[in-house]
Batch of 4 targets.
Target 1
Amino acid sequence: MKCIIIDDEPLARMIIKEYLQDFPEIKVLQECNDGFEGLKAIQQWQPDLVFLDIQMPKINGFELLELLDNPPHIIFTTAFEEYAIKAFEAHAVDYLLKPFSKERFIKSLQQLDFQQKEVQKSKTEALFQTTSVSPVQSGRVVVKDGGKIKIIPVKQIQYLEAADDYVKIQTAEGCFLKKKTMLYFEESLSPQQFIRIHRSYIINYQLITRIDPYEKDGHMVLLNTGARLPVSKSGYAKLKEVLGI
């Protein structure tokens, strides 16, 4: 069984390796001290199991997992706030709250069912949707850009556009894809800066320069970037409210 440990604390990695000595069937292939290194290791080794810290430099544990198309089994090792712990428990994604005992570590391994990877994956995805780690809180969105990782500050987002199972994030640097829903961004981005004007568009309304009538009962919004985007009837009502017109 292939395993990777991703944690920026050397002591935490050492404790996990020590506890794993009682599980000779689990082989630690690599230790990583940040999310960038961890992502590369997962892509290289395709492990069965990852011990993953949440609060790390560069990118955190949630952001790392969002970049994976087929996440392995995850056991979080964290000193995270209690609101997130409740989300772990609700979706049966296991975690080890630091400092954790050897008994708790063993129990965590015993709970994993490697024959039910799809079930575990669905629970992990459900966890992403309910934890409070969102762009509005972290102030950024992490995406894959080719073989690289791109960190987009939320304040640089001009607008978002629905694209099948993805969302296009438009910035001055270009367009980037994120495998999330429009509803996710609508609920997590700050209403003091972003508004959904159409089923396919969320805009940074601080960039609006003009709203023009368009066809029957329709409107188009013009951003200072030159972008022209359609506004639905309900979107126009929301725009009038936030703009005070």
Note: The first strand starts at residue 2 and ends at 6.
Target 2
Amino acid sequence: MTSRHTLAAPVTASGIALHAGVTVTMTLAPAPAGQGVVFVRADQNGARIPARYDLVSETRLGTVLEQDGVRVGVVEHLMAAVAGAGVDDLTVTLDGPEPPILDGDALSFLTLIQKAGLKSQNVPREAIAILKPVTVTQKDASASLSPAASASYDFEIEFSAAAIGRQTFTLDFSSPENFAALIAPARTFGFLKELEGLHAMNLARGASLANTLALDDSGLVNPGLLRFPDEFVRHKILDAIGDMALAGAPLLARFQGVRSGHAVNNALLRALFADPSAFRRVPMPG
């Protein structure tokens, strides 16, 4: 039997929020078997927001969850680390509107989870098996889930920026070591020419040359931050893993993305669960 897992102990970190630009303290804590991942806004009377695809209210420059008028933003990096570590039940308490961006990757969160350690819940772990292909397309972006014995991610991006160009990457997500070494360290990225407009919308106020790969017309502004030559597509896979984690259980599927972002990823889960013939809940393979 593959069991559900939670943390063995609480762990806390503080840092700047990517969009709000304020300091946020985050505590990751053990949770009861079957709870799933739940965000708690300590600064909003302890409001609880489950990490579910159907509670996604915004996908502009990050995945935002909302319930009863209370929101938590930019959850994808943390959710990718949670999925990569095999954590099923977790309480995430925040005293602000987003988890801290930390190093702009998922590795920062994965390191915190590893520091806390995992504890078996002695309750069977469930997976979602994909029974037939499901695809969504929006303009020149698409994403699909296809039947597979284990999880994998194929991704393709193409940007006019010479520093990115066309990049592809394939990840076998059935191996936690693969995620930790190949995807978790990939940082988020953005374009300096968009920064003024984002600031006008109260976005990206916590982005810096220390946590974000920044590009301008001449190329990468902070090349010393680059961890992989194809880090941009790897980060897109990181985002997709975080977005797919909002399914509520691991997906036994092959994910294929072409220029897809948070909006397409969320639309894919909504399309999947709108068709009961496309999936089945099964015991997680050992």
Note: Residues 231-244 form the longest helix (14 residues).
Target 3
Amino acid sequence: MGGPAERLSAVTSVPMRAWIIALAAGLGLVLQPSPAQAVNASDVAPCRPNMPQELRTFPGLFTVHVVCDHVLYEIPPAMLGRDMLLNTEFAGLSAGTETLAPGTLVENRLVRWIRRGNKVYLEAVHYEMWAGDIPGLQRGVEAASVRPVVKAFEAVAEGKDGAPIIDVTGLFVTDVPEGFAQEFKNYFQMAASDPKRSYIYSVKAFPRNVEIRYFQTWTADPRALAKSYESGRMPIPASLGFLFHTSMLLLPEQPMVGRYSDPRVGYFEVSFDDYGTAEHRAVKRGFITRYRLEKKHPEQPLSEPVQPIVFYMSREVPDKWRPWLKKGIEAWQAPFERAGFRNAIVVREAPTAEQDPDWDPEDVRYSVIRWTPSPRENAMGPAVTDPRSGEVISSHALVWNDVLRLAEMWYFTQASPLDPRAQKLPLPDDLMGEVLS
């Protein structure tokens, strides 16, 4: 009978709803109404033999179809050629990967879906060259910027208005495409993904983004594995398992106005070569990374923002540290007031599963404070940015549990002569809260 691609290709001339009905009737599938947009883990799984099979459809940025353990995207024509942010993070890790933590960034890149005939290509988009102040030259820059193909897909059917329908399962369960997590594969000396031990875990569709969680098994390079045994040291593992979360977010057609960086001021930046200057050469420049803060009332010296910076406190953060982290983040409200914004940055509790079953800390739309059980004494705050302008889309701040030990020892060694509370270990929780915030 073949896989979903073969089944769908046989009905490409049938209108969208009709081919779903035909597919269900011809294969014994059970059509399920889908009032919710999320597909839970049990829905993206191999079909059980001799059982009615389900085909489920979920509207969103793309219409997502789930047939057994295959996920298909129906890409509206209006979404072809649009800039989208593809962000991948670790959602779970196996033993032997303690240097990482859930929420660690794997890959962040700009992509476009391009259709040519019956093929749909996922292309990587780069903005390392720019000439925005000279429109004609900017067109030349765009023409000279070749976009590498990440992966090619066969259009197995067409939906409304000729929307191509592609089976994206292989993007997540077979070998990692070039550029996806290659740095980590090299770091762990892994050679390839094992599709027999990899699978899509869940998928969610929303109006501006699609979220996919999937498990991959990576296998070691046989030569590296043999060499590690010969060395007499701890051998590298034969395989490692990773749970990934990939977000695909539609970016605005008109990017935020970028602000050029200045080496005299310490900002993170998105760098590029600017060919549109008065100098007779390309100039290395950059847009600073910043949130899109706009006043509700531009005429007022102090105004609420149109959209504040919202950080969610993830559900796993220990209760006794939650108020201190909130205090530390919202302490930045005072500097923002000096810049003309009232309540520019706020902290909210993550909704419970009952309040919002679709909420996910890895969702690229949300800025989240994460807490991970790890002996690593550190914390980090990677930002997801729009490379076209430097706009910060979200920030996933990670706190490793043993950063408490680092903060405790720093304060003990530096402040104990002056602070009687710090002259005995362990430090009391109220003092640790102050240090943490």
Note: Residues 4-250 form one domain.
Target 4
Amino acid sequence: MAPRRTRAAVFVVAVLAGACVGAPRPCAADDTTAADAGARPPAWVDEFALNGFLSSSYGYNFNHPPSGTNQFRVFDVTDNTFQLDVFELVAQKPVTRPGDAGFRVDLTFGSSIPHVTASAGLFRDETGKAEDIDVQQAYASWIAPAGSGLRLDFGKFVTHCGYEVIQGYDGWNDNATRSLLFGFAIPFAHVGARASYALSPHAALMAMVVNGWDVARDNNRSKSVGAQLALTPTPPVSVYLNGLWGPEQSGNDGDPRTVLDVVATLKVGSRLTLGANADWGTEENAVAPGEDALWWGVVGYVRFTVTPSFALIARGESFDDRDGVRTGIAQTLSEFTVTPELRLTEHLLVRGDARLDRSNQHVFEKDQGLSQSQPSVLLDVLYSF
């Protein structure tokens, strides 16, 4: 039998090939008409879009960890290594008006992001191991003709929580490395159904029912629910109020996990953007019977556009994992990151992170011992189309 990774790659190629050969082929009369019209592609081709995104990086940890890994990082785990973080290919038929039906599928390949974001039961096996491939998103959409249009999505989609995103052709973070809150306070993706509705030009509501956090197949018999209220009172300001609730432990339907997440952005003129994110989470009986787990954190962002092709970004945050249920050890983590960003062309971007992580515990590998700090740098190259 072929290795699992090979079977997955063959499956993806087969799907893409099937999308091409499975399309309806015009009859002979239609061929003549097409030739007379200059062999234009079928009309349905214009309804679909194909986009892509590539990220490759090199990181260096000044602690020289013996394991060759960075502690408490999300995607930039490997020290002193060039790596292909991700190549993402997105096929979609967007929906914009009531009555529209469409879909979106994000296929990701790489040695970094797919290993972390793969959902259990899809491209992550029962041992917890993930491969170099993942279906980051795959959902069908329909806008019901109700009021201004009720959008319904069914399938797998990235979480609505957090300031930062996994990244893709249609959006990436200002910093090359991910925040502690992104990695430890919230989930990456969900499988289920969600509904979105615009209450007004400045307010929108989303609600969803899903299997849970980062699971394609539910690990218990209860579902999780989530919601978002998006407020844009004036163009320079946006506020997102997010929530998630539901049992997440395997075979446990009685101990829910709750997360409240707030995201805000403010644009000051054309050059300065300020951002903030706060998370508060708890899980019943997660520490011990009768003892609930608690975690919380805050992070702030500043982006200053120096020229149309050059920007400077700074991020600072603190994350309190009081009981160690999120990071594996009871601690308070903090980090500060500075990122210069240079856009070389419309599609090509280069950026670098200088980052310092700190903890109130000795948790970072340093030479042959442990340290309370972890300084590192990272160079990242992005291409999108």
Note: Residues 1-37 have pLDDT under 50 and may be disordered.
